[in-house]
Structure formats: structure tokens, C-alpha cells
Specification:
Number of helices: 5
Mean pLDDT: 96
Number of strands: 51
Shape: globular
Strand content: over 45%
Number of domains: 3
Structural class: mainly beta
CATH superfamily of the largest domain: Glycosyl hydrolase domain, family 43
Largest sheet: 8 strands, antiparallel
Distance between the termini: 38 Å
CATH topology of the largest domain: Tachylectin-2, Chain A
CATH architecture of the largest domain: 5 Propeller
CATH class of the largest domain: Mainly Beta
Length: 749
């Protein structure tokens, strides 16, 4: 078929050359089609255009994977022949919810066996599917997947006369299926969509899946069947320029709620950070990440590097789910270590739903020894699991989050699970080479009957040397995250710890006290990970939830890490927690500094101070006040406000969020817990970062929470107490973004 015939048979062409706006021209009809995008009419930030980038020719549209698609009127014709061609550069692969494709283009209804769909599936597999009204036919390419982050020319051909379905990648045939001849595609009575499946799965009633994530350019639809030879003869040439598939932090500019100096992925979903390490002059953090959208699914190991644990620079995913027998269904949490040759190693929970149990421990080794890349961009997975749940041990389906360390010549690994009828546990393994591991025993078993908040199973275990007694006895701290097999009011609220003795001879941890303790008295500081930094500090990371699916969908992101904190034994013999001192480097302008003032005089000085990115150091001498502290994010009429206060009667520090927001579906209520001030003043160290509030109380405990004020003017501050309360000291700084000087980096390989 020559160029003239191609032109005559072209029935739809989207060049994506607009480069701006939310309308796109279909050139055959001159029609302008709508580009749907979450921020076309944004609720929590200034509205902004969909994501435009340079294409193979002119411009192209970057589909974000969950909110971007093009809608066009339904085509009511039947097709005896059809060819679809376009350029694509996917950024990630979906899980394939409902067994449906992440559509590139479609107008189909699989249930009525009508229409057509061209799209991608897990691991880059792709397919062209058509319906004749009586039957549904599919052709697949699994051996030749569409690669990520590079340009690929894809073509799909239906020849109803000959009875063929063909797929071509970069001009070469990669799949062929014969079907009955003299067939035609019957039209489906639905819209024609680009980038979104006509029949998507919906998660949590909000998130649409089966959507394309990446760049589409020069999309053409013909009512003719181009032959393989004709397509090959056209000389499809892959461009030398690399597609711009970078995840963009800038798309959230002006977001009222997105933290600016907490760690947060460049886009979409994260749950817990994990595997923090210091290697060759810089810090690394990994995290559970879904690059497709702001919801949990098809989890990857996101990765960022930093000189100071604050100013993070995004680097490519460390690990992604891959076809095969190791981790096709997810790369879940784990830890890092440096092997005996000085090479970083990752241990992680590998998801494979074809196995029972579906979780095992896998390993990947950095290529640093070969390439010297200090960002540790590339990792090679070990071809086999290094540990599986022993038969008859633990809770099947709960075997994850390995934590690894070395003492003398032996490597130790704990992997969390549970003991039926008892409680959570961490199963201990030993090895001499990091590859061959021997199961030993549970290191410690919880008591969920006596302490129901500790859960049926555990996650994310940590074990560190904590302090030495006066007699020189080494004490350790053992930290876990609870997990529940059924719905629980305690789900995703706490991190627990015990201090005690790590008995290396018996391979058990013996707590000094049976009752578990918390560092954070709120209900949002969860997902612990940690390491010992080069100076000997125990640094903990966490994740902060408290976001509804509705608000995550409208914001375009879900969750962030808590501030890095240092935990240790205080001079008074009590465990304590405090923010890392490096946070001082993010201080901006000092807004106020005062001391030894009555409460009313101090509040007069505070009237002109406002902000949603602040550091506050406050010491109050309470006098006779029963409740004392500070209100933050206060609107001028006090219709919105969040109270952070000490309750003398209950010896507890509390956060009252009942008036934090006029939004109808955000979390509210009062949270907090015991903090013993031992009769002293209240010393607060508070960080406000958009939706985040972190309070550190006398260096003993913290309270971490999240708010979503509705009003833009909820920026004020007001001290709490009574006429007898004295403000011993108050200093407030503006805080700078940790990302101002960080370039947007590629998040995919």
C-alpha cells in the first residue's frame, strides 16, 4: 500500500503537537477532543495543563497513569480491516487488575464481544483484542515486551478478510494469530478513549486502573490492513533522542497540603521507607512506591539519595516487579547491608501469588563494584530466594520485611511473621555468606491477648545496640510494626519497642519489661525503618498516613515519610526521641524570639506571625493552668484550628483536630498519650509542613499527625494556658523547602 492509499484510509490521527492546553485536535475531522487530567480544575493547587513533552515529531502527551486520558465520540462503523500505529514510551507497567489492558486506544466492550482495544499488561506484555459480536479474539506479545523509558513504534493489524491479527514492534512482526476469515469488528456503543480502558477496574471506589502511564505520540487509525511488508518498508526508525519520562515534582507546585521538607516521592503513592543506609559519602533511602497512581498496587522500590537525610534527589527505581518466579507481584519492604567485599546488598520481601505462601525473601546486589556508580542505580537480583517460610512455622501470608546485620563472622536476619494464637514474632536466620540462610527460631514472641495493640503478626523489625548499663551490659532496642489479620481499631497507628538483652548464644531477645512502649503518642507514626549513621546515632524513618482515598485522588499523591529522628537514652535514664540536628540547615528567616513574658503579652506578639512551614521552639511554665500548649494553623475567626497541649490531669500530651478542617471527610478527633514531665516545664519542638505536624515533647516523646485545613487563611498561632502561665522562651523560624535545589531526576530505568 503506497502513501496515497495510506492517506485515503486514515480515519483518525492525533499528532499531540499542541504542547499546551487540555484540548487535542483529531486531524481527519478537525474535531477537538478533551484531555482529562486531575489538575484541569484542581482543588488544592492552581489548575494546570496536562503534562506535555517533546515527542518523536513535535510534541507529545505524557499520561500520568491514573488521571490522564483523551475522550472522543464513539465510532459507529464496523471494520473489515484495521491498523493502529503510534509511538509510545511507557514509564511503568500496571498489575493488570481484572485481567484488563492498560489501554493505549480502545472502544470496546469485552462482555458483549464488540469493539477493539490495543494496550499493555504486566511486565510490558501487550495485546490487540477485537470483538465480532459473536466472539472475542486476542493476539499477545510476551516474548517481545514494550520496554520502559524508550521510544517504541507499535502497530496492530486486523485483516478480517484473511483472518489475521498481527502485532509489530519497531516495524518487525512479533506476534501473529489466525482467526476465522471474513470477520469484521462490530462497534461497541461506548466512547473512544486514549490512555484509559473503557471497562476499568476501580479501587476503593475512587482510583481508576487499567490506564497507560507514559508518552503517546503520532497515534493513527486506518480502516485498512497494512501488511507486515508494507510497515517494514516504511522504515520505522527509533529516534535517537530519549523520551522525557521523568516524574515531575513541579506538577504539584502550589499544593496547599504537600509537605516541602519531609521526604516525599516525586509522584503518586508511597508507604513505608526502608533500607536506609550511608554509603560512600551519601545517604540512601528506599521506599514502597506505586508509580502508576496514588494508591497501593504493583509495588516497586523507589530510591533517593541525599547528602544530609533532608535534601533528597530522585534516582531510578532500585527494584521493580519482573516476570518469572521471584517477584512478579511486588517488591515489598526489606533492608540493606554492605557485604564483605564492600558492595551494598538489598534483602526484600518478594511477592509471587503463584506460590503458597506468596512471600519469600529475595536478594539483589549493587553493580557498584563494576560501574562505580555512587548513586547505586543498578541492582542484580539473585536468581533464587534466599529464605522461605519453613513449613509449620509462623503465619502463612505473613513473612516479610527482612532486617540483616553482621556480628563477628555471622550474618543475622530477622523476618516478621506471627505465631497463631499468641502474637507477632520475628523469625531468626543465620548465614556465613548472605546467600545460604538457616532458620533458627523466633527471636521474640508477642502477647496479643495481653497487649492487643501489638497485633496478630508483626512487620518491619529492627534490632540495634541501644546503650550500656553502668555495669557495662549491652542493651538493645527491638522495634516492630503491628499487623492484624482482621479489622482492628489499632490498625496502622503505632510503632512499638522493647529494650532488653540480645542473647546471641540462645538467639533470642529478652525484654527488660514485657509491656511494649512507644516513642510517638499519636496515631499516625508507623512503618519504622532505621540504621546507625556514621556518627553512631540510631536514626529512624517512618511513614505518615491519615489521607482518605478521595483526597489522595484529588491531590495526586499519597503519604510521605516522617522527619528522620534520633532515638537514644537520655541523661536521666529515659529513652528519648528528637529530630535530627541537620534540620537546622533548612531554617529560613527567624520570625520571632521572646522570653519570660506572660501568656497574653506573648500572644500579642504572635498576632502577626503566621505560616504553614514553620519550626517552633517553645517552653512554657504552666503555673496553675490545667491545659497549656499552642494552637497552630488557626484561622482569624478560630473556626479552624489545631490544638497541641499538655493535659495536666491526665499527664498526657494531646492533639485536638476537631476543628482542624471544615472538609467533611478528613480525619478529626483527639489523639495523644502519657508523657511524664516530672513536674517541669513543657518544652515543645514543633514542625509544621503543610499538612504535617510533628511535635517533640521534652525530648521524651513525639506526637505526629496530619491535617487538611479548608481555609487558606488558617495560618495563625496562639498560645494556650491561663493568666499564671509564663512563656519562658519562644522562637519561630520559617522553613525552606528541601527540594528547591534538587533537580527533577528520573525515577525509572
Amino acid at each position: 500500500m503506497g502513501g496515497f492509499a495510506l492517506k485515503n484510509n486514515l480515519i483518525a490521527h492525533w499528532s499531540f503537537d499542541e504542547g499546551k492546553g487540555n484540548l487535542i485536535r483529531e486531524h481527519c475531522t478537525g474535531r477537538e477532543d478533551n484531555i482529562h487530567y486531575v489538575f484541569n480544575e484542581a482543588k488544592y493547587k492552581p489548575s494546570s495543563d496536562p503534562l506535555w513533552v517533546k515527542g518523536v515529531k513535535g510534541n507529545a502527551l505524557l499520561f500520568d497513569g491514573y488521571s490522564t486520558w483523551v475522550s472522543a465520540p464513539s465510532d459507529t462503523r464496523s471494520f473489515k480491516s484495521m491498523t493502529i500505529e503510534c509511538w509510545v514510551a511507557p514509564r511503568s507497567y500496571e498489575h493488570g487488575d481484572g485481567g484488563r489492558l492498560s489501554a493505549i486506544i480502545n472502544q470496546h466492550d469485552r462482555e458483549t464481544k464488540t469493539g477493539f482495544v490495543l494496550g499493555m499488561f504486566r511486565h510490558g506484555w501487550w495485546s490487540f483484542q477485537i470483538g465480532t459480536g459473536d466472539a472475542w479474539y486476542e493476539v499477545w506479545s510476551e516474548a517481545d515486551p514494550i520496554p520502559r523509558d524508550t521510544w517504541s513504534h507499535v502497530a496492530a493489524v486486523f485483516d478480517g478478510v484473511k483472518g489475521n491479527l498481527v502485532l509489530l514492534l519497531n516495524g518487525k512482526q512479533v506476534a501473529l494469530r489466525s482467526i476465522p476469515s471474513e470477520m469484521e469488528i462490530k462497534p461497541a456503543p461506548v466512547e473512544l478513549l486514549v490512555g484509559k480502558n473503557n471497562k476499568p477496574s476501580v479501587l476503593h471506589g475512587v482510583f481508576t486502573t487499567n490506564m497507560f502511564n507514559g508518552i503517546i505520540d503520532e497515534l493513527c487509525l486506518y480502516d485498512a490492513a497494512l501488511s507486515v511488508e508494507e510497515i517494514e518498508a516504511r522504515g520505522v526508525r527509533v529516534p535517537e533522542n530519549q523520551p522525557d519520562t521523568v516524574q515531575r515534582r513541579s506538577r504539584y507546585d502550589g499544593d496547599r497540603h504537600r509537605p516541602q521538607y519531609h521526604f516525599i516521592p516525586p509522584e503518586h503513592w508511597m508507604n513505608e521507607p526502608h533500607g536506609p543506609m550511608y554509603f560512600n559519602g551519601q545517604y540512601h533511602i528506599f521506599y514502597q512506591h506505586n508509580p502508576q497512581g496514588p494508591y497501593w498496587n504493583q509495588i516497586h522500590w523507589g530510591h533517593a539519595v541525599s547528602p544530609d537525610m533532608l535534601r533528597w534527589r530522585d534516582v531510578p527505581f532500585a527494584l521493580s516487579p519482573e516476570k518469572g518466579d521471584i517477584d512478579p507481584d511486588g517488591i515489598w519492604s526489606g533492608g540493606t547491608a554492605v557485604d564483605d567485599d564492600g558492595v551494598p546488598v538489598i534483602f526484600y520481601a518478594a511477592g509471587n501469588k503463584r506460590r503458597n505462601p506468596d512471600q519469600s525473601v529475595a536478594m539483589a546486589r549493587s553493580t557498584f563494584g563494576q560501574d562505580g556508580n555512587n548513586d547505586l542505580v543498578d541492582w542484580i537480583k539473585h536468581p533464587e530466594y534466599v529464605a522461605v517460610l519453613p513449613e509449620g512455622v509462623g503465619l502463612p501470608g505473613n513473612f516479610r520485611d527482612p532486617f540483616v546485620w553482621k556480628e563477628e563472622k555471622t550474618w543475622y536476619m530477622i523476618v516478621t511473621s506471627g505465631i497463631p494464637g499468641k502474637g507477632g514474632t520475628a523469625l531468626l536466620y543465620t548465614s556465613e555468606d548472605m546467600i545460604d540462610w538457616t532458620y533458627r527460631n523466633p527471636i521474640y514472641v508477642g502477647d496479643s491477648q495481653k497487649y492487643p495493640k501489638t497485633g496478630d503478626a508483626w512487620e518491619l523489625p529492627l534490632l540495634f545496640p541501644f546503650y550500656k548499663t553502668e555495669k557495662g551490659e549491652q542493651k538493645h532496642i527491638f522495634i516492630v510494626n503491628p499487623w492484624f489479620l482482621q479489622a482492628s481499631p489499632h490498625y496502622c497507628k503505632y510503632i512499638f519497642y522493647w529494650i532488653g538483652t540480645w542473647d546471641r548464644d540462645r538467639l533470642v531477645f529478652i525484654p527488660d519489661e514485657e509491656e511494649p512502649q512507644v516513642f510517638d503518642v499519636g496515631e499516625h507514626w508507623i512503618g519504622p525503618s532505621g540504621f546507625v549513621d556514621p556518627s553512631g546515632r540510631i536514626i529512624l524513618f517512618s511513614v505518615i498516613f491519615a489521607m482518605s482515598p478521595r483526597i489522595s485522588n484529588e491531590l495526586g499523591w499519597s503519604y510521605n515519610a516522617g522527619l528522620p529522628v534520633e532515638v537514644g537514652m537520655r541523661p536521666d535514664g529515659r529513652p528519648g526521641v528528637k529530630p535530627i540536628v541537620e534540620l537546622e540547615t533548612l531554617r529560613g528567616r527567624k520570625l520571632i524570639e521572646l522570653s519570660d513574658l506572660p501568656l497574653d503579652k506573648a500572644n500579642e506578639r504572635l498576632r502577626e506571625i503566621e505560616g504553614d512551614m514553620l519550626e517552633i521552639e517553645l517552653e512554657l511554665e504552666p503555673g496553675e493552668a490545667e491545659r497549656f500548649g499552642i494552637k497552630v494553623r488557626v484561622s482569624p475567626d478560630e473556626m479552624e484550628e489545631t490544638l497541641l497541649f499538655y493535659d495536666r490531669a491526665n499527664a498526657s500530651f494531646m492533639a485536638d483536630r476537631n476543628k482542624s478542617s471544615m472538609e467533611p471527610d478528613v480525619e478529626k478527633g483527639i489523639e495523644g498519650g502519657p508523657v511524664d514531665l516530672e513536674g517541669g516545664n513543657l518544652q515543645l519542638h514543633i514542625y509544621l509542613d503543610k499538612s504535617m505536624i510533628e511535635s517533640y515533647i521534652n525530648g521524651i516523646k513525639s506526637l505526629t499527625t496530619r491535617i487538611f485545613p479548608f481555609r487558606h487563611d488558617a495560618q495563625g498561632l496562639k498560645l494556650l494556658g491561663d493568666a499564671s502561665t509564663v512563656v519562658k522562651s519562644l522562637t519561630i523560624w520559617e522553613m525552606k523547602s528541601a527540594y528547591e535545589d534538587c533537580q527533577e531526576g528520573k525515577m525509572d530505568i
